[in-house]
Design a protein that fits this description.
Elements (H helix, E strand, L loop, with lengths): L1 E2 L8 E4 L2 E11 L7 E8 L5 E7 L3 E4 L2 E12 L2 E6 L5 E4 L15 E7 L4 E6 L3 E9 L13 E6 L4 E5 L7 E5 L4 E6 L2
């Protein structure tokens, strides 16, 4: 058990018979009336973010979650097959639990977050950035744009389509932010 004084970003709690993680919180002490905590909670099953207010000092159940390192092996009709990097056991997860599945290539390392009490996988987390090769993009022409923020679509080796600057060409390796599915920078060999 924990109270609202223990709230921090990333804390996983049980609320309304579901698991939520605290995305954002703010302790509020108005001039009149009791203190309260305003929060944004993300449902770990659906990904939906809700706003909720707790009275100060309210007790909540904290859910124990564990991060375990896994490696992506392949995808088949059963789902995404992953191997535990510590004991080499394999599991298959459905696409709903995968974060940014279009940015994963064979051998990609990722974390699987488990509910420690029930041993059920909740979601996966890729590293913040992945490096992928551009397999196709239209050539960018000099003088194509009046502004410096012009982008064009590019297909990377996993099949995902990312918006990239005009100077990126087929065969270039680019760094992609997995949290926003956006171009970060071109990687020099």
């Amino acid at each position: 058990m924990a109270t609202t004084a223990d709230f921090r970003n990333g804390l996983c709690i049980e609320y309304n018979n579901d698991l939520y993680t605290i995305v954002q919180f703010q302790h509020v002490k108005p001039g009149k009336g009791p203190a309260f905590v305003r929060t944004k909670l993300k449902n770990l099953k659906t990904g939906k973010v809700i706003d909720n207010t707790f009275n100060a000092g309210v007790k909540v159940n904290v859910a124990r979650i564990e991060r375990r390192p896994y490696q992506f092996l392949y995808k088949d009709d059963m789902g995404y097959n992953l191997m535990n990097m510590e004991n080499y056991e394999q599991i298959s997860l459905p696409e709903e639990l995968m974060t940014a599945p279009l940015l994963m290539k064979d051998g990609q390392e990722l974390d699987v977050i488990f509910h420690a009490d029930t041993e059920t996988p909740l979601y996966t987390e890729l590293p913040p950035f992945v490096v992928l090769e551009v397999t196709y993009t239209e050539p960018g022409l000099k003088g194509d744009t009046a502004s410096s923020s012009a982008n064009k679509p590019a297909t990377v080796e996993t099949g995902a389509e990312i918006q990239v600057p005009l100077f990126v060409n087929t065969g270039d390796k680019i760094k992609i932010d997995t949290r926003t599915n956006s171009y970060s920078e071109r990687v020099k060999e």
